[in-house]
């Protein structure tokens, strides 16, 4: 299935770049792309990224082999990304007890 080619990479160090991740994940198979999600204003990494393989088999191996890998001072989590959904597209998140300053 197409969604098994798409991975979400969580808990990334702030200084990691797409090239590092692409080289790492390419060890298991051809990677279509890696995209680090960045703050629109500062361009700083938000600590997570998406990677997509051309085939499902290397994506399955990446989940098994790279989930829990230490990169710098972070333990990276790797899992299958959920496909975009119209149900969650315009969802609001409410956070209680958030400091005002």
Could you give the count of β-strands?
A: 6
Give the H and E element order: EHEEHEEEH
Spatial order of the strands forming the largest sheet: 2-3-1-6
Distance between the termini: 45 Å
Let me know the largest β-sheet. Answer: 4 strands, antiparallel
Structure annotation, total helices: 3
Structural class: alpha+beta
Mean pLDDT metric: 89
Portion of residues within helices? 10-25%
Tell me the fraction of residues in β-strands, as a range: 25-35%
* Rg estimate, integer Å: 15 Å
List unreliable stretches of 5+ residues: none
Morphology: globular
What's the arrangement of secondary structure elements?
Elements: E1 6-10, H1 18-26, E2 31-38, E3 45-53, H2 56-66, E4 70-71, E5 74-75, E6 77-80, H3 86-89
Antiparallel strand pairs: 1-3, 1-6, 2-3, 4-5
Which terms summarize this structure?
101 residues; alpha+beta; 24% helix
What does this structure look like?
The chain contains three helices and six strands. The strands form two sheets. Strands 2-3-1-6 form a four-stranded antiparallel sheet, covered by helices on one side. The model has no long low-confidence stretch (mean pLDDT 89). The longest helix has 11 residues. The protein is α+β, with helices and mostly antiparallel strands.
